[in-house]
Write a structure and sequence with these properties.
Largest sheet: 7 strands, mixed
Radius of gyration: 20 Å
Distance between the termini: 23 Å
Shape: globular
CATH architecture of the largest domain: 4-Layer Sandwich
Length: 312
């Protein structure tokens, strides 16, 4: 039997009272199941953390001794228990080490997606699917009007820019994906990375994901027009509003983060509308619970065929 209160939000985040654990808690807790290392999913200071090895490495790099008291590192499909709930991880395809969480309790199964992506990405494990009674899906872009473009067509835009490029991107996940894509599909470009991005990229290399050639940013290099692409995190990108001799682009699925309407680079690491529908098809749930977005479009789309509710 599906339990309507199997997970619910409280002041610390998404809580499973039947196992006394949180999924991607927003405040430090005793038992934290963490899907991936982005800051809005992985906070410092938890007592017992269940995650993949890359996620632990990223958290320890970012948070140091405050990363958490105890890490239990799980492989894909390795079963573990917290209280009376049995869990295991499958790949989410969002970034290196990103996981979906399968939870089984009293004969029912619940799949919590975390953030996920269907687009091919050679810098992380491809997404995997299992059947579940309940699909708990992020709905960041669960809107029929949001269809992400082909990322290869987007990255090809760089081939038509002759000047150096200042390319804004989130430092973890996006920057590494872009490094690999530029090396593969715009090989005449020379990738430079911000000093905050380089240690994160090194963890990718440690886990066997080669990003291709890149080097640390050097101010003298960027004074020469040699088709450099300088990857920088958002705070640095925003500080270069008056940068001369470069084309400014920001890589994101969010329209409001694009530098301007003429020069766009829509490369998203989230599921779009068609991807969410594909997830429903693959998981074949009896119910859909949504979070991290607006689930009303899914509710309208499925009507009475699948029970849909928002956890937000």
């Amino acid at each position: 039997m599906i339990l309507a209160d199997f997970v619910a939000y409280n002041a610390n985040g998404l809580y499973c009272k039947y196992g006394n654990f949180y999924l991607d808690p927003q405040q430090p807790v005793e038992h934290a199941v963490i899907t991936h290392a982005h800051g809005d999913h992985a906070v410092a200071g938890n007592q017992n953390i269940y995650c993949t090895s890359p996620t632990a490495d990223f958290m320890k790099l970012r948070y140091g001794k405050n990363a958490g008291r105890s890490f239990r590192l799980l492989n894909w499909h390795q079963e573990f228990r917290i209280g009376d709930v049995k869990l295991f991880f499958i790949s989410a395809g969002h970034m290196l080490g990103s996981a979906q969480v399968v939870m089984q309790y009293q004969g029912s199964s619940y799949l919590y997606t975390g953030d996920y992506k269907l687009q091919p990405d050679s810098t992380c494990e491809p997404i995997e699917w299992v059947k579940a009674d309940v699909l708990i899906t992020e709905s960041t872009f669960a809107n029929p009007n949001v269809i992400h473009p082909d990322p290869l067509q987007e990255i090809d835009k760089l081939n038509h820019i002759q000047s150096n490029i200042l390319l804004g991107a989130y430092g973890l996940g996006k920057a590494q994906r872009l490094t690999r894509m530029i090396n593969d599909y715009a090989p005449q470009k020379k990738v430079l990375v911000h000093f905050r991005i380089a240690p994160l990229s090194a963890i990718y290399e440690k886990h066997g994901y080669s990003l291709g050639p890149y080097q640390m940013y050097n101010r003298k290099l960027m004074k020469n027009q040699q088709q450099f692409v300088y990857l920088v995190p958002p705070f640095t990108f925003d500080s270069y509003l008056r940068a001369e001799g470069v084309k400014r682009l920001f890589a994101s699925g969010w329209k409001n983060l694009q530098a301007n309407e003429q020069d766009t680079l829509f490369i998203s690491d989230h599921a779009d509308w068609n991807d969410v529908l594909h997830a429903v098809e693959q998981v074949n749930p009896q119910q859909i619970w949504t979070l991290h977005g607006d689930g009303r479009h899914l509710k309208a789309h499925f009507g009475d065929r699948i029970f849909t509710k928002s956890l937000n």
